[in-house]
Every structure is written in structure tokens, then in C-alpha cells.
Specification:
With 64 residues, the protein is α+β, with helices and mostly antiparallel strands. The chain has helices at residues 20-27, 31-39, 56-60; strands spanning 2-3, 17-18, 46-48, 51-55. Helix content is 34%, strand content 19%. The protein starts with a strand and ends with a helix.
């Protein structure tokens, strides 16, 4: 998991970041399934502060 710091200048608009809940709704799966996917490296995540978010572009590759 990539951790963003103050030195990191992310080029990501807020609308391009999804929450775990967003993914649950999008894929119709449980929170635990999303956590499993993240743990197995099936989906990339970023940690901003204490929050885990997912880039929309990375999520779009799951359904491809």
C-alpha cells in the first residue's frame, strides 16, 4: 500500500478516489472481500491520513 505524505504531491482529484463502501456497492461484495482483494494485491490502495482509498483508474481494471 502506498502512503501519501506531505512531500508527495498527488495528482488525484477527490472524485477519483473511492472508499471501501463505494467498492462494496459497485461490486456487490462485502467489506471483507474488498480487504481480501487488497491483501492479495488484486486492487491497489492509497492511505491518506488514516483512511484507505482506491483510485478509480485502478478499480476500473478489475472489471476489465
Amino acid at each position: 500500500m502506498e502512503t501519501l505524505t506531505s512531500e508527495t504531491k498527488p495528482n488525484i482529484a477527490v472524485g477519483d478516489l473511492l472508499t471501501t463502501r463505494d467498492l462494496q456497492i459497485l461490486f456487490g461484495v462485502t467489506r471483507r472481500t474488498i480487504e481480501n482483494w487488497r491483501g492479495r494485491g488484486l486492487i491497489k490502495s492509497v492511505k491518506i491520513g488514516g483512511c484507505i482509498r482506491y483510485r478509480r483508474e485502478d478499480v476500473n481494471t478489475i472489471g476489465a
